[in-house]
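Batch 3, record 17
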Amino acid sequence: MSALRLISNRTSQQSLSNSDYTWDYEYYEYGPVSFEGLKAHKYSIVIGFWVGLAVFVIFMFFVLTLLTKTGAPHQDNAELSEKRFRMNSFVADFGRPLESERVFSHQMTEESQSLFHFCINEVDHMNKEKESQKGPSLESSTHFQEVPKSSGMFEEDLHCLAKFNIPNFVNTEQNSSLGEDDLLISEPPILL
Amino acid sequence: ENISDFSLNITDCTQVVVPEEVFFTVAAAGILENLLILIAVVRNKNLHLPMYFFICSLAISDMLGSLYKTLENIFIILCKMGYLTRHGDFEKKLDDAMDSMFILSLLGSIFSLLAIAADRYITIFYALRYHNIMTLRRALVILAIIWTFCAGSSIAIALFSYEAATVIPFTILFPLMMFFILCLYVHMFLLARSHAKKIASLPSSTVQHRTNMKGAITLTIFLGVFLCCWAPFVLHILLARFCPHNPYCACYMSIFHVNGTLLMCNAIINPMIFAFRSPELRSTFKKMFYCSK
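Prediction for the assembled complex:
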């Protein structure tokens, strides 16, 4: 018994760089630390660390705020209408009724927000494939519509995809009163 | 606390003591909250989605972190009361197991946050192919790989924690992952900004130009909370490894208990900023509580 204990003590001492093992925070197993002749304040690391962390977080916040600032529009009109047409034809591909008279509601559902993002993304990526003239030609501006609950074909996918919870720059809450900063698509609604 | 039993001569920087009641309350709250999330996700079939599985993974790592702190406190109390010897072999093994639980919790947190960020990234940038890219099976496989890797490295780090070679990669991994997560979210932000620009440029829209503050605030909270809760502890480990005899480092290490409490606060805050943002999860909670009454 005692031999075993000796061995275990020895191995533990081999693995430790300092005094023998005790059940506690080993970080505090070190010898006496002298506090003579300190030039700076003794808690300088603590203060410096927390100040540095706070500065970093605030800096990150400002950088992110700058990133989310919406700039002035400077796009070409032709380019705009082309993109809109592609977006419309893309929307038409999924067989949902395109009603140009519908007013874009202030309270977007999760589904339509998701679809909006799909449209914006995929239009940019699928330039070549969507050249066919599908759907009615819509000369007016792009319309965003609420996905009717009975749309069927794509609804399940949209339901699933709409449940993602990305950072709140896209508001996925259905019934919340949308404040000024909540939506990418801001008030007032886009009237067609 | 056991600190008074040390043969330390730190006369000026005494340990900052956190009352045990505070410790246990914070730990218990963290464990309960994350357990609730796990139960809610398991019970509601609508929540069997990759996104919620990643949130569950985060909840599990938070629970492990709080559990580690609770168990450690319990064992220290037992030591103080004399039920456990302080030089025993069994206690050493127990301590190693607890260290590996803590490292597992830290690595699990980091990788879960990374998985959540990657999942959101794929949702936005590969929106239509999301269902094919992130199937349920793939999400589970990813989680299995993550947790196997974390378990393996935590055991390895705990066993070889006295080598500098294990401490350095551990502390490099932490800022690296944070930076990667930040990049993912910044890219998502840039897309959001280009969306807003496109909408603003539509001729019939009367959108005003303004900043979208909520996104910046949300992301700052995400990363700021993680940083503020984990970085003090990681710095402590670094200092303990490299400059234990330096009086400045020793003073930093004297606030060890405060850092530990911050860790457990992270377990409480994480569900609020990830899980409770989802309306579906919130309604599941309401149903759970109203049904039980």
